[in-house]
Amino acid sequence: MKKVLVNTALISTLAISLILVGCGTKAASSTVHTYVGSVNSTVYHYPSCASAKKIKEANQVWFSDVSDAKGAGYAPCKICKPPIN
Ligand SMILES: [Zn+2]
Hints:
The structure is a single chain. By secondary structure, the protein is α+β, with helices and mostly antiparallel strands. It has two domains: 1-31; 35-76, no CATH class. The chain has helices spanning 2-30, 50-53, 66-71, and strands at residues 35-38, 43-45, 60-63, 75-76. A four-stranded mixed sheet has the order 3-1-2-4. The longest helix is centred in the first third of the chain and has 29 residues, at 2-30. The protein is elongated. The protein starts with a helix and ends in a 9-residue tail after the last strand. 15% of the residues are buried. The model is unreliable at 23-29 (pLDDT under 50). The site of zinc ion has 7 residues, from helix 2.
């Protein structure tokens, strides 16, 4: 009887841990802003690039990584040279 209770508690703890880890990963990926582009161009920049700073906030398009930017049809800036892959 006692053994069954321990096992149930262990499974519950594991389940809660998995849920917490899953939520944490999701929250992190949705808040990562690594590269920025403009809705009026097809170039992505480091946020520190002089050209990137000229993009109005309303026109900014944010990407979490290069594959995200390339998937949207954007190419790397020739001034700040973000990674191609
Ligand atoms: Zn740039």
